[in-house]
Amino acid sequence: MHVPNSMLSGSICPVTAAVSTLSLAGAVVAAIKIKTRPAIGRFAAVTALIFAIQMLNFPVANGTSGHLLGGVLAAAMLGTPFGMLSMALVVSVQALFFADGGLAVLGANLLNMSVIGAGLGGLLYQFISARIKQKHAAIGAAAAAAWLSVVIAAGAVCIELAVSGTIAISKSLPAMLSVHALIGIGEAVITGAALYLFGRSVETEKSFAFKVVAPTITALICALAISPFASSSPDGLEYVAQKLSFLKESAPSFVSPFPDYLIPAIGESSISTGLAGLTGVVICVVLAMALSSLIAIGNKMTHQSN
């Protein structure tokens, strides 16, 4: 779902950047104002978990792979404002440090995965869960919202491609939706399983070990030990781009320190991928703790002034 620089051009890049910036600014304001917010450790652990699980591409069909989008999972585990900010951190780290999605299209990727994935996805999760009167309503609602968020985000990519003049939406939309409808099933399963294991933002019965330690350890295991064995098949967007002949290679405008999730000094190997993933987890934890601490300070100042 990460759109590369070569796919978008023109006004769509600054427009998506502006929409994403305003939306995330709104998320920051909402995060500061709310009285109940996730602990700093929880925010960091969930951010690291989503980064690590996104490295685990799973096979889908016809030589295609998919990976977790994670927006609904972040919103369900942290609350929608913090879920949006967690996803924004993940997407930004991926672009800046791992060349996963370019800087010119960072606004579009933030729009698709943070604003739509976690923002709209979080609202869908709340809407569905409020209407399901069963024991595990939250898990079922999260799974349904997760599937929808992937399909909607895929549709948003098609609109962006059409506005950019890359390919007509009449050609890209059927292919993107058919592929991502399948990828969304994996998204739903992973989201439901993770929510069952690590709990929702409103659950109090989960201990510190389940809320913080378990997600962090899972992130470390996924990044260091499992990510080297992820599917190497093209993801849904790459598959459609190859099929419809709009996949173009271009020189990167920014040299990332760990391109393609590898340590350049080591080269292409399982060790290199694992260490790069571990580095990404650490970066996400540090940045998430810093952001959450700043929000906590803003929250305290806001409530003191009131």
Stretches with pLDDT under 50, minimum 5 residues: none
Q: What separation lies between the terminal Cα atoms?
A: 42 Å
Nearest-integer average pLDDT? 92
The number of helical runs is: 10
- How many beta-strand segments? 2
Largest sheet: 2 strands, antiparallel
Principal-axis shape = globular
Share of helix, binned? 55-70%
Commentary on this structure:
The protein has 306 residues and is mainly alpha-helical. The protein has a single domain (5-29, 36-305), classed as Arp2/3 complex 21 kDa subunit ARPC3, CATH 1.10.1760.20. Helix content is 68%, strand content 1%. It has 10 helices and 2 strands. It has helices spanning 12-33, 40-54, 71-78, 80-98, 106-129, 137-164, 169-198, 208-226, 236-243, 270-305, and strands spanning 58-59, 65-66. Strands 1-2 form a two-stranded antiparallel sheet. Helix 1 (12-33) packs across helix 10, helix 2 (40-54) packs antiparallel against helix 3 and helix 2 runs antiparallel to helix 10. The longest helix is centred in the C-terminal third of the chain and has 36 residues, at 270-305. The protein is globular. It starts with 11 loop residues before the first helix and ends with a helix. The mean pLDDT is 92.
